[in-house]
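Blinded run. Sample ID left blank on purpose so nobody reads anything into the name before looking at the predicted structure. Input follows.
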Amino acid sequence: ELTDVAPASGARIYLTQSEAILDLPGSVRVPAGNRTVSLAARSVPVPATTNLRITATYGTSSVSRVVKINPPRLTSITVQSKIRGGGVGRVSVKLASPAPKGGMTVRLNSSRPSLFPVPSAITVPSGATTAAVRVPVTQVSRDADVTVSALLNGISVEDLKQIEYSYRDLIKMA
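Blinded prediction complete.
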């Protein structure tokens, strides 16, 4: 905010940032008679919470503020709707925004690892919002519930599904 209204020609404010994280323009113009101008900026994905210093300069005066940029957050985990014992199940995770360079590693856990052995982690590739993995399912002698959970930066989500016993599959195996 300017201490006085911008002159008739407007006021050119130069912007800099401590790291190239936001798509900030190099400068903005405050219209004549105004003290402020608003702008929107998008960030590149970051792997961890990052404090970014933004500096606005007008003439010989500068003001800096620190803005916190958060990493993508985990929004969901989905286990395919029908899982048959002796088959293969699909597990997918979703982030609220694209993964940063190098991807984001999401921890996975199964409540029944002997029946549905998910890997310990899955990586959402750089620029993507989802990742999936196929999981071999142990043959079961009766229906069994399994809860698969995902954890990223302190946020945990889970999905409960049933592994189905299939009498027909046992006949085919005999």
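Unblinding after everyone has recorded impressions. The two ends are 79 Å apart (CA to CA).
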